[in-house]
Fold this sequence. Notes:
The protein is an alpha+beta fold. The chain is built from five helices and six strands, in the order αβαββαβββαα.
Amino acid sequence: MDQSKLKRCSASSSSHAEAAAEATDPLQKAERELDYLETEVDSRKRQKQEEETTEKKKECCFDTKDAKGNNERTIFVTGFDNSGSRDEIRSALAKHFSSCGELTRVFVHIECETGVSRGYAFINLKKRVGIEAALSLNGSDLGGHKLLVTMARLRDEYYAHFNFKGCEICRAGYTAGPQRLYRWNLRTGGGKVRRFSPKFEEKCRRHHEERMASRKMNKSKTKEG
């Protein structure tokens, strides 16, 4: 009798254990599924963030409305802190030069692959009188950095972006740079001296026009005679 009772007790205890295991298995399975889903969601979020970061880093340097617009009145600025983003540097420069008048353009040149500033920018002002005010900021302090401000046409960067590979989109924006630089070197002697002063060039132009007009007049008189 005692042995049969022990068998029955052991059988009932094993059945209870199996029932308890069956009851806990669905809970454990659900927990495992939740853990897997959470891991999958986190993985997808990280992947999306990495993709967005990569796309942001590969922003084209010339794919902005301010990329074009260099002219004879463009201001060149360098010496600022280039550790910030393109928008941060642009905002800081716009605020610093706002006292010079209305700004129509602030272009910060960056590396397409990294999004890091190349350390210089071009600024255009709406009115010509603001140019002198902007040039007076040469040597001024911006965030603990001393700025170099000059006319852009006196800098090589105005004509070509050196040591800059760029991307497929922006490549068209600077392929003509070496040709412009070559013509500029011929015209200005490498930017060091002008071959002729602007007044002398204007005087030569007027003299040439007067000579051409005189020749035409002499030809007409000869035909009439």
